[in-house]
Amino acid sequence: MSRMPVCGPEGPIRATAAPEGRRVAVRAVLFDFSGTLFQVAPYADRIRAALSQPVDDAAMDLMLSGLEAGLSDPGVVEAQRARDVSSKAHRHAFTTWYSSVPELAPIADALYAQLKAPECWVPYADAESTLRQLTCTGLALGVVSDVGWDLRATFAHHRLDHYFTSWVHSYEHNTEKPDPLLFDHACRELGAEPAQTLMVGDNPAKDGGAAGAGLRSFVLPGGATPGSYRGLEAVLRLAGL
């Protein structure tokens, strides 16, 4: 695996010239999980499934507003620090957030169990077709995700696991993106140099940070609804297909 050049404030200290007239081909593509290939089922549906009694739309709106407000609660914000470096930290971060809404505190553990349940995740409409076209052309695929549990069961539930030959979960490495360790590990497993690898995600700092490890990166816009088209056809173009 080639090393990234050491950079000063203005750029690389040692100049390295690529072979003239040659474009480095993409040999591998890494994907983020949530917000990139999958989206979790709507919160309102999950809350209704976890509560023992039905709630009307007005009550649900108050609970959803409470979750929104909870994102700026100091205790919730603190719980998110290094959230994805371990399974324990991940559970703590999410259950702390759910519990910031009094009505949801009794079902915080149930909501977290839903988060890990394969059936609670919905692939985007263009996920499978994109993965199929990439693998049909011989590209190697991997998953690099900041997460607190093993994602293979979720991919298998939706029959998408067979497209991937590398699985890099942050909690298994005690670090989070954009730590180069995660991207380097995936590249080694796929047998591709960073310069030959494209990282696809939805977080500019974390997924876009793959560029700091020498990869190409493509960041999708946020806010896509579960099951919608994600715009993943752009990945095919970036991979030269």
UniProtKB/TrEMBL annotation:
Keyword Hydrolase: yes
NCBIfam families (alphabetical): HAD-SF-IA-v1
Listed name of the protein: HAD family hydrolase
Molecular function via GO: hydrolase activity
Organism: Streptomyces piniterrae
Pfam families per the UniProt record, alphabetical: Hydrolase
Alphabetical UniProt keywords: Hydrolase
Entry keyword Hydrolase: yes
